[in-house]
Amino acid sequence: MTVTTPQGFRAAGVAAGLKSSGADDVAIVVNDGPDATVAGVFTANRVKAAPVLWTQQVVHGGVVRAVVLNSGGANACTGPAGFQDTHATAEHAAAVLTAAEPGREVGAGEVAVCSTGLIGERLPMPALLAGVDQAVRELSGSGGASAAEAIMTTDTRPKTTVVSGTGWTVGGMAKGAGMLAPAMATMLCVLTTDAVADPEALDAALRAACRVTFDRVDSDGCMSTNDTVLLLASGASGVTPDQAELTAAVTAAAHDLAQQLIADAEGATKQIAIEVTGAADEDDAVEVGRAVARNNLVKTALFGNDPNWGRILAAVGTTTAAFEPDAVDVAVNGIWVCRSGAAAEDRSKVDLTGRDVTITVDLHAGSAAATVWTNDLSHAYVHENSAYST
Predict the structure, then answer these.
(1) Which residues are CB-neighbours of 46 under 8 A, at least 6 positions away?
(2) Shortest CA distance to 352 belongs to which of 291, 270, 259, 241?
(3) 368-375 vs 329-332, strand pairing mode
(4) Using an 8 Å Cβ cutoff, are 358 and 275 in contact?
(5) Which of 353, 40, 18, 17 is nearest to 188 (CA)?
(6) Among 63, 150, 231, 295, which one is least packed by beta carbons within 10 Å?
């Protein structure tokens, strides 16, 4: 269940010494297929890391033969020198891949680069480039699992997925446990498929998938500088799915990875789905769901197993969505604790002892609906993020 499950892909993950722990920290995914089409979606943060700026240019070219990823350093806010480091990484990877397979030339403009880790520090380039050398030597069709481990930072486990089409497959890996907030997606993610698809078809499928999955994960309201989601197609299956089939499979893969991300969010003890119904339109539903997801009073109440619906209703009231305050209903794990903007069933009936929590908000303003996923705010989250840089 990895990026190498679709035909035409190899991968590897190695330890290059970027992490003081000695864990794997450099990964590479290579597309060996007859095609090398690509689509990408990137952070909307105005402060973009050097690898994001580089990879945006690469994706614009429509061809990606390899993706080099590293943890242990974000290469963000590092100025022109940091961009040159990314460029040098792509050039080095292209040269090593070309040398490894004479007759199959890879250009630097066909190598995407992704980085994750602490912001504001240059990468140790000798170690990184040596890691690329080692990763290329270890490339294999079974290397997807090690690649998924190498991109982890505060993640406690790797995230991988596979979705099967009719004669073709989508695979994927992602990392992310903190700085999880929308405005693209919320992590590093590589999706692969052996379907035949041009860049336009991939782009349409990826953007549709991100809109209802990664872009609705809102763990802590903090938008990263490095968010990147890539979709690579090898064409190795020889099958060209229609657009609806391709979009459905990519969406299923993205949804699976998004749920794994929120389940592994930093310090989380609750995995929370905020279902907004009865909205005037989908944008209103998402805005309301996002407001509840980002409300620290709601998140801390749930950490304390307190179904404090007043905090939920107050969060709804901060939005511009169409609704009448005295018409809103709120349920927590199926118990309608608020009806028509006032107290309803006894809140003591709500069972919050488990990890999964569902908050339902019915605006009674229309027929649109959306779900946003978040987690609680715990002591462990504060501790992890206060100690992260050390």
Answers:
(1) none
(2) 270
(3) unpaired
(4) yes
(5) 40
(6) 63
Token readout for 270 is 């609750």
pLDDT tens-digit series, residues 29-68: 999 999 999 999 999 899 999 999 999 999 999 999 999 9
Q: What is the pLDDT of residue 192?
A: 98
Predicted pLDDT of residue 361 = 98
Query: Is pLDDT of 126 > 90?
Result: yes
E strand spans, the chain:
9-14, 26-31, 37-42, 66-70, 111-115, 159-164, 169-175, 188-193, 228-233, 271-279, 329-332, 335-339, 342-343, 356-362, 368-375
Question: What is the SS3 assignment for 23?
Answer: coil
Which residue, chain included where needed, has tokens 């402060």? 47
| pLDDT above 80: residue 257 | yes
> Which residues carry out catalysis?
186
Residues 6+ apart with CB under 8 A from 136: 12, 28, 93, 96, 97, 100
Enumerate long-range contacts of 378-381, CB under 8 Å, 24 or more apart.
Answer: 378/267, 378/268, 378/269, 378/303, 379/267, 380/266, 380/267, 380/269, 381/178, 381/220, 381/265, 381/266, 381/267, 381/268
Alpha helices in 103-153, H assignment, sequence order: 125-137, 144-150
Which pLDDT does position 179 carry in this prediction? Answer: 60
Closest CA to 27 of 101, 134, 103: 134
125, 130, 131, 137 alpha-carbon torsion, rounded to 10°: 150
What region does 348 belong to: left with phi over 0, alpha with psi -120 to 50, or beta? Answer: alpha
- The yes-or-no verdict on residue 266 having pLDDT over 60 is yes
Backbone dihedral region of 75: left (phi > 0), alpha (psi from -120 to 50 degrees) or beta? Answer: left
Query: Which residues, in sequence order, are bridge partners of residue 11?
Result: 29, 140
On the question of pLDDT at 358 being above 70, the answer is yes
Please answer whether residues 265 and 385 qualify as being in contact, where contact means their C-beta atoms are separated by less than 8 angstroms. Answer: no
**Whole-number CA gyration radius for the chain:** 22
